Amino acid sequence: MPITPIGMYKFENVIPGDYVLEIRRQGFITRWAEVTINTDGMTLKHRELIAGDINEDFVIDMSDISNVNSKYATYPEALYDPKYDVNGDGNVDNEDIQIIKGNFNAYIGTYEDTMNWADSY
Q1: pLDDT (average), residues 86-99
Q2: Is residue 12 part of a domain?
Q3: Is residue 31 included in any domain, yes or no?
Q4: Residue 81's domain is classified under what CATH number?
Q5: Closest to 112 measured CA to CA, from 33, 25, 26
Q6: How far is CA 72 from CA 83, 90, 112, in A?
Q7: Which of 28, 40, 43, 58 is close enough to 49 for a disulfide, judged by CB 3.0 to 4.6 Å?
């Protein structure tokens, strides 16, 4: 589904009912939300994702820092991989490490309003 740079999206031809929406982005802790779609559509309040879950295991820990360190100082011209570029600035550097440190020990339960669907993976 196309998503705009500011996170807007549109579902089309969805049958009204109750659904679980997965909100996911590479390098961030995934979250889920229960939503009800009716004939008027659906409104979902703003939800942010927590950056730094490089290995996508639903927790930000030393393994994520280690993964970024393994690609540290790589740039698009070299062995750059956007998966390790947490802030998306085109460099794997200390700024990425600092974001992970700032979110260190965050996990799926950090989202107060999320459903814990991680066990289904």
Answers
A1: 93
A2: no
A3: yes
A4: 2.60.40.4130
A5: 33
A6: 12, 12, 32
A7: 28
Question: Closest Cα partner for 117 from 2, 22, 14?
Answer: 22
Structure tokens at 49: 């994702």
Give the number of domains in the chain.
1
Helix or strand holding residue 94 (H, E): helix 94-102
Two tokens, residue 7: 């996170």
pTM of the predicted protein model: 0.78
DSSP state of 35: E
Tell whether 10 is covered by a domain: no
- Between CA 116 and CA 4 the distance in angstroms is 26
Q: Does residue 30 lie in a domain region?
A: yes
Residue-number span of the structural domain to which 110 is assigned: 17-120
| Rounded distance between C-alpha atoms, residue 93 and residue 78, angstroms | 14
Contact 79, 73 (CB under 8 A): no
Count of all residues that appear for the chain in the document:
121
Q: What is the mean pLDDT of residues 80-84?
A: 90
What is the distance between the alpha carbons of residues 80 and 103, in angstroms, rounded to a whole number? Answer: 23
